Amino acid sequence: MRNLKTFIEDFGWPRIIIFLFLILLFIMAPFVRVRLDASISDVLNRFGQNAIMVLAMVPMIQSGCGLNFGLALGIVAGLLGATLSLQLQLHGILGFLGAIALASPFSLVFGWFYAKLLNKVKGEEMTIAMYVGFSFIMFMCIMWLILPYNNPTMVWGYAGKGLRTTITVEGYWLKILNNFLAIKIGQFFVFPTGLLLFVGLFAFLMWLFLRSKTGTAMTAVGSNPDFARASGVNVDKMRTISIIMSTFLGAVGIIVYEQSFGFIQLYTAPSPMVFPAVAAILIGGASINKASMVNVLVGTILFQGLLTMTPSVINSLLQTDMSEVIRIIVSNGMILYALTRKIKVSK
Amino acid sequence: MANGSPLLSIQHVSKDFYGNVVLHDVSFDLHEGEILGLVGENGAGKTTLMRILFGMPVIAETGGFQGSVIIGGSEVHFSSPFDALDAGLGMVHQEFSLIPGFTTTENIVLNRESMRPSILNDVFGDRMSILLRDKMRERAEKAISKLGVELDPDMLVSEMPVGHKQFTEIAREIDREQTRILILDEPTAVLTESEAEVLLQTLKRLASEGIAIIFISHRLQEVLAIANRIVVLRDGQVVKDTPNENVSMRDIASWMVGRSLGETGARSEGRKFTDIALKVQHLWVDMPGETVRDVSFDVHKGEIFGIGGLAGQGKLGIPNGIMGLFPAGGEVILEGNTVPLNSPAKALAMGMGFVSEDRRGVGLLLDESLEWNIAFTAMQIHRQYLKKVLGGLFSQRDERAMEELSKEYVSLLDIKCTSTKQKAKELSGGNQQKICLAKAFAIKPSILFVSEPTRGIDVGAKKLVLDTLHHYNRDFGTTIVMVSSELEELRSICDRIAIVDEGRIAGILPPTADISEFGLLMSGAAMEAVNA
């Protein structure tokens, strides 16, 4: 009984409630004629699509910069990489890795300037980051129109210039990870092996990094910057590294998302990508200055599971479209909950 | 001057905070027009006594006090500072409680403004009254002239020199017609010498008009200059209540710091040292509240060097500056090599260790395990407790080595914990302090700075901490620079003790020196004055 109590305390009520709700949705699914195997396949797919963007939250949380509400910077870097890869006519795995490689310098530069800014506003990172993200997306709305892209699959047909809002990656690197070693069972179930392996690789690298000397110093900076400074750690440098890492992971995350989803979405599309990633890691049990790989995995599964199951199950049940409403309530509610927990950080 | 019944009488006042006695059976009287000099070391109970007098809520919250306070012949029970103000007490705080964006006049008459009702009063009450600025200015000018100083009634407080701020505070208390008793807590601490002189003249003038004054200061020459009577508090007791006649600074100093004999621990055995380990030349440190102005001293190899002095005089700034935690300048030479200032990493790499006075703020990672706390600095500075992976391609934390190290220190320093995986915030203060020591020892420093190592820990833990320092000094030859507010503690362990006053070293004494000498140095009397 006591074990159960400590387990519940460790795991946290919000996670348990969401977990039970998710189970309930799975149980109800067959009764409203939603196929279970297709649902599970869907959840796995969406987990893989989003996990790296959730992972991108980890470095900045660990270094005490809070939740990366400016993830849009990384996403934009990823979009630049993806569009450049299409512009250069890179196909297949080369196209996918090329997109990541092309996105890297952008994420480095964006991350560096972003870090410069956040190091000047210690304690207010999250608010500032959010506005950095918003304004940068708007700035890029102009850039997408005037950058000299000319691949016919990407530009507006009537003008011959300016990128379209949605660009398909079909014929380039569509589902390049999803289909790698994919296991197909029956008509509806596909296990996206390559996608999950790729996510696993990044999570493992992050795990290794957090156990290195630099990773340890980064965690100490997040835990108590004054202690870290007194121990000879360059606090600003650690924060800069974490912010660049976070931005880079955001770029990789969106490219992974695109290859699975099938489209590069430009203009204001990065905006609604940020909050779900923030909400997912919080659902996973991270606080604003402590996050682990378990938080990332559990959080992404729970959040994406909820997102996949509510439209199909609840909509069939209520005969109405509630999915978007539920998604917004859950993700914003979770952020709100986690931010009020801020006080519990001992100083 | 003392005649008739006392204006204020404090009788048998005792107060403890959760069993920790801060005031014990304190009694004294204050007469009309008398200036009473109240002196005592930090922690002697002066502030607590003033809080009781003023009915501060913190006193009631911590269980009230014993004894009684009698004003004008009748016992009073203040439940808030407002009651105290109504009863005629005025307080001038050490830190200015003025509103920077308001003028002198506005500050002086704050919350007692001269007003006339407006039509809005019927609906909204007094808050909507109209201020009579002429009347307010008149009152302010009257209060200022009573002080006998020049103050511009229309100047903004934010633009004033500190001295004027202090006078504005006093003027505010005087403007209250019923003010009969004025309490000044270290009023001269922030003033220049000439400003302090004017203030003292003003106080004398006020006293001659019948206002009784309690003057708290650690500058003994000022107390001697204006007080009619001197009350010395030590460890919560009145050790001396004497008229200011034939009293010398040396007397007061020894009453202040002197403890009954036999209490002091083992004295230094008069060890001799030759080699110089650390040479500090003209060090300045910009640490808020602990500014170091110009400090030079040498520390010998193998000795325990003590730095003492009253709070706020700059003793804490010295180790913090040398270790690069606050902006500093000057020259620090460790065994012939110049120490780069303003870089904690370089200071640590040169073999200097530091135990911060701010245990919870700087000393510990409260949310991490003891292993992290103890091994972290050694890992970052000396790349220890890391293991190579894949033939040195990259390295990972060696958790096993960290655990072994922590276990070693847990048993060595007798740290009470459930395991080395326990979080630092779960330990008691004394054990947390030992973790801080373990962290510093783990980098194997050749010279160790410890700042207030016994602050806020119980007696048993204090002894253990001091014994540990002694042990490391004697058995491993670690040179130790110990900064502490507790003089007795310094005298029990140090080979030499420097006393810091106003950001400068007032003097360096052997621990066997007479206690009054320490007291004099702390009270801002220069060495020449002592010898004179």
Strand percentage of chain B: 25-35%
Low-confidence runs of chain B (pLDDT<50, min 5 residues)? Answer: 260-266, 527-532
Uncertain stretches of chain A: 343-347
Any idea what the CATH architecture of the largest domain in chain B is?
3-Layer(aba) Sandwich
What distance lies between the first and last C-alpha atoms of chain A, to the nearest angstrom? 32 Å
Number of domains of chain B: 3
Helices of chain B, by number, come to 20
CATH level-3 fold name of the largest domain in chain B: Rossmann fold
Q: pLDDT average of chain B, as an integer?
A: 83
CATH superfamily of the largest domain in chain B, called what? Answer: P-loop containing nucleotide triphosphate hydrolases
Order of strands across the biggest sheet of chain B? 6-9-10-3-11-12
Instruction: Identify the CATH class of the largest domain in chain B.
Output: Alpha Beta
Give me the count of strands of chain A.
Answer: 4
Quaternary structure of the protein: heterodimer
Strands of chain B, total number: 24
SSE string of chain A, helices as H and strands as E:
HHHHHHHEEEHHHHEHHH
The radius of gyration over CA of chain A amounts to 20 Å
Question: What would you report as the Rg of chain B, rounded to the nearest angstrom?
Answer: 27 Å
Distance between the termini of chain B: 31 Å
What does the largest sheet of chain B look like? 6 strands, mixed
Biggest sheet of chain A, in brief? Answer: 2 strands, antiparallel
Tags for this model:
heterodimer, A: 347 residues, two-stranded antiparallel sheet, two-stranded antiparallel ribbon, 14 helices, disordered C terminus, B: 532 residues, alpha/beta, Rossmann fold, 24 strands
Structural overview:
The complex is a heterodimer of chains A (about 350) and B (about 525). Chain A is built from 14 helices and four strands. Chain A has about 350 residues and is mainly alpha-helical. In chain A, strands 1-4 form a two-stranded antiparallel sheet. In chain A, strands 2-3 form a two-stranded antiparallel sheet. In chain A, β2 and β3 (about 190) form a beta hairpin. In chain A, α3 packs antiparallel against α11 (about 235-260) and α12 packs across α14 (about 325-340). Residues about 345 of chain A have low confidence and may be disordered. Chain B has about 525 residues and is of the alpha/beta class. In chain B, about 35% of the residues lie in helices and about 25% in strands. In chain B, the strands form six sheets. Chain B has a six-stranded mixed beta sheet, sandwiched between helices. A six-stranded mixed beta sheet of chain B has the order 18-21-22-15-23-24. In chain B, α14 (about 370-380) packs parallel to α16. Chain B is elongated and about 85 Å long. Chain B starts with 7 loop residues before the first strand and ends with a helix.
